[in-house]
Amino acid sequence: MSSLREAQKQLTRDVIIDRALELFTQKGYAATTIDEIAVAAGTTRATFYAHYPSRADLMRDFMARVNAVLDRADGPDRATTAVELVDVVRGGRLPDILAWLESRSALWPVFRPYLDVLDEAAAVDREVRDLVRGWHEEVIADIVRGMQLAGSFSEETHHIRGTLAFTQLDYVATLWTRRKLEPHREHALELLADSWYHLLCDEG
After folding, report:
1. Are 138 and 83 in contact (CB under 8 A)?
2. Model confidence over 94-146: pLDDT tens digits?
3. d(Cα 107, Cα 104) in Å, to the nearest integer?
4. pLDDT tens digits, one per residue of 17-57
5. Are 117 and 63 in contact (CB under 8 A)?
6. Which of 65, 166, 170, 184 is 20 to 30 A from 3 via CA?
């Protein structure tokens, strides 16, 4: 019975998340009410709050979905980590960097809508802003870890290099979810891969 109850709880949470994403995308984060999400999910305001005491709690599950799609798992320090990203930076090969970027770009339609909502929520909610910033730092830490393992560049430049690389990736990905610039994806990824290679791997 316990496992059945847990499955039912998860199903309710999944429906709430799905309907919330639809409403946030259509109306915007700030303009969407809890009552609207509850009605769209076929439940009540009380049930919503039983699962998500605050909007920030809902945003944490949005982030959990992003991590699941990207195969980011909890590391020993409880931060999420993407082993493939660390390995690609450590390897330092341009074809591997491009292949990794292409594999992630194929997932943009799946996870970028969640990140777009999280970015919008972060603009008005400090708790969500801290959540998003923390996630950014986790991705940057993976890039830094790759450079450390490769022994590339001086240690004092690692974080700024990782930050620049992440910012480039985030900006290019945003072009497709917000501006729909699909026709130039191939060229953009090639340029991004080349930039990452020189920024993170090539000391020549």
Report:
1. no
2. 999 999 999 999 998 899 899 999 999 999 999 999 999 999 999 999 999 99
3. 5
4. 999 999 999 999 999 999 999 999 999 999 999 999 999 99
5. no
6. 65
